[in-house]
Amino acid sequence: FSEDLHRWFNRKKPSFKEACGVPELPEGGSEEHLPLSQFTTVDREAIWAEVEKEPEKYLPRNELSEEDLPYYVDLPDRMAPGAPDSSEHTESADTSSGHTDSENTSTFSSPSHDPQELSHEENCCAPIPMGGRVYSKRSSLLAAFQPESFKSNTKLSLVRADSDKTQASESLSSDEEADLELQALTTSRLLKQQRERQETLEALFKHILLYLQPYDSRRVLYAFSVLEAVLKTNPKEFIEAVSRTSMDTSSTAHLNLISNLLARHQEALIGQSFYGKLQTQAPNVCPHSLLIELLTYLCLSFLRSYYPCYLKVCHRDILGNRDVQVKSVEVLIRIMTQLVSVAKSSEGKNVEFIHSLLQRCKVQEFVLLSLSASMYTSQKRYGLATAERGRALMEDSLFEESLINLGQDQIWSEHPLQIELLKLLQALIVLEHHLGQVQEEAENQPALSREWQKALNFQQAIGAMQYVQPHPLTSQGLLVSAVVRGLQPAYGYGMHPAWVSLVTHSLPYFGKSLGWTVTPFVVQICKNLDELVKQYESESVKLSISTTSKKENISPDYPLTLLEGLTTISHFCLLEQPNQNKKSAAISDPINLRNAKNAILEELPRIVNTMALLWNVLRKEETQKRPVDLLGATKGSSSVYFKTTKTIRQKILDFLNPLTAHLGVYLTAAVAAVWSRKKAQRHSKTKIIPVASASQLTLVDLICALNTLQTDTVLHLVKEVVKRPLHIKGDEKSPLMDIPVLQFCFAFVQRLPIPDLQEHFPSLLGVLKESVQLNLAPPGYFLLLSMLNDFITRTPNLESKKDQKDLQEITQKILEAVGNIAGSSLEQTSWLSRNLEVKAQPQVALEESDTEDNLPDAAGASAMVSASAPSVYSVQALSLLAEVLASLLDMVYRSDEKEKAVPLISRLLYYVFPYLRNHSAYNAPSFRAGAQLLSSLSGYAYTKRAWKKDVLELFLDPTFFQMDTSCVHWKSIIDHLLTHEKTMFKDLMNMQSSSLKLFSSFEQKAMLLKRQAFAVFSGELDQYHLYLPLIQGKLAVDLFCAARTGYLKLGSS
């Protein structure tokens, strides 16, 4: 039938051209070279004669190819041989190129309605909905595309399910029944998934119209160009004219002809014939009462019109149709932009008129569906380029998108249309805002019930994947979904500037959907910037994130575009906008802004991470040496995106600086969250305080570069975060941010020069005072002690006595907290006893421990140090005290204040000596750390009162020498013991073994001699030369006693 239709059109083409007075265009011509006279001569009588007589009948061909068959199954009985063609479009510009130019018909056949029942107010611009008799035909059409294997499998599963019901009496094993049920469930699930996808695509392509034959796109482009030129030069006057000019068929014969053609198009859209006698209509009745409505309808019709797959067209025809779609959107943009100016006048009549225009033509719905369909096309081409082509084609054949010829171009071939559609959406969003909200139906309901209903309706609209009346564009799930997916690589990088422009310019109008829309958009911006950094690090010119990027040219200012968009969106949602228009929908309801602010704050760690990555790239660009060309000029970056380092640096600072004033705590917490994720992969396991990685130092450099964050401000923010630590979003264990922020603070303090560090001592003291009172995890107190030690060792003595006293107080508190951690592996010997002993449990040596690996567990656990704390922390506490305690106390307490430190040392050693009394193998790590601590303390004479007695007892203990060679610190301990007490060495030499009552008669002298020898060994060279006669006499006596003991044993034997 279609071939008969084409032959009829080809035969009538000359007569149409003669009737219209339009000569055939040359092959390479363009619409710009068309003379205006070609569009002014119209033979209306010839057109009337052609459209009112029935087309000639041809006998159908006996055979149809299998390729063409499926497209005729769904044609209605009275399908027009030439459904709406380009005459519908060109006649609106007082043109007529005949009905051979273009044809439109709905992709989906409409139900069989009486044309008189179709109200032109409701269906003037939209395709008739699916349903009724024709829907079953379309289902049969889709079934024709399914592979035979799929049909047979479906039939088999149905038979098997039926057999389970009818043959229940058969004896089947439980395993067979389970297999049958599982197979039935699997088949049902697959069918359900396929049905859901089919319904989704049907909703996505329901607005599409199909041409039945090629048309001359150049003529339509010329007509649209004329309209666009008028809208450019005199937009206000033109819109006023077409808004006031009605389609009065009695006024002019030309309007009567347009009205008749429109009526025929309406007939064709519902499956009737375009030709022949029309049914009698009431006089002066036209589907579109005003010219502006007709113009809008024509633009939307061209926008959603495509060629079918079965129609043989060349690539030039597809490109021409795409140009027509783009041009139609450009005309719509100018129309809607001018209507915004009209709506701003706030005249009730104008507002109602524009409302009616948008509703009758369904402008928002068709624009959204067109954008979604175009994005789907880009995604499909991306999938064909990256996945198995055969599989994709097989899946597509099951759905109605296979009826549409979308072309075989690259992903970015859809970008011109999408860019214009985004501009049109932006104009429509502004227009809807100025038109005001639609009046609610139930205004007489209570306020609470009305608000609940509004919230429910919004949730339904924002989650729907089809257009929902009467909600505005910003509440449509189609738009939110498109925005969320807009920056993904599958849709092409060339669209990203357009998406950023749409979102940033529409921020004041998003209303309730502000947080829903911008938060995932911001996340995708960060992902794309992260990928640029990966490209730079891999030193590859081409992006590795997608196969399309290897062919797609990306603008060099791409990172600047994303940074500007990120800045605009974040500042709008996070900062107060005093200069904002108070009539703005988003500003008028603070709840919307608060929800969006909370959503953006949850993603602030991701944003800070992206800024740190970019900052690291800038640092590398500025520090690494670049080759010099022949003229002596330094060559720029190998990456085209990071050549302008100063500009990108300034963009980052412009983004972060305003956030510090009101959101400094959140920003610092975000820095801490990023810090915890950037720990070094390999670090020294002998370091109690983990060394900051290069990525973490980049964070410090970034914060130091913010001119709105002075040193006092940073330390104050750290204190606030430690007091009220936030949780990391999305982390499984959700650790607090107190430990990471202290690690950041320690690195920040280490970076400060000495004058600044001394100047900001009060701020640092505030951090230490506030933190030591909290229930921190053990690593937190280690960090406090390290920060305190760094400050004391790098700065001279404080002149103020008050500052010195405060420093001594905070030192005492921190050391006592660390001392409690050191004693966490001890327990009381009995309930009432104050004596402590080591728990009989394995201990982790410092060389075997991994502080950072244990940090999350420690940070998440209770900070109150108890006997159940891991032994790794007790060993680390002892080791840290051994490193810093002696020198720290020596500098904190002046020469005339040394005695004040002795009670503190005694309290600390109370947790140390129990480890030194235990010579068990499991206590070896603590024994070594305790010996090191005691060795460092004993070097200062003023401390001997705290340890002299206990050290001497340990030295004379029978198990003293039961230690490995790593405990060489005892050499210095004994040396300090004998050095600080002038008579101690002499007393040791003169000590009688019998008076000690430590050994048996023959072992006492040997053990005492061994300790006396170790005492000499512990001293320096020639340290005890003055006691040489005493030593020689002692040795002679011991040798004589030893020889005598040997003779007695020999004689008794």
TrEMBL record:
Residues 768-1036 form the DOP1-like C-terminal domain. GO terms for cellular component: cytosol; endosome; trans-Golgi network. Residues 93-113 have a biased composition (Polar residues). Signal peptide: none annotated. Residues 18-38, 55-125 are annotated as: Disordered. One of its GO terms (biological process) is Golgi to endosome transport. Residues 203-576 form the DOP1-like TPR domain. It comes from the Eukaryota. Residues 55-64, 114-123 have a biased composition (Basic and acidic residues). This is Protein dopey-2-like.
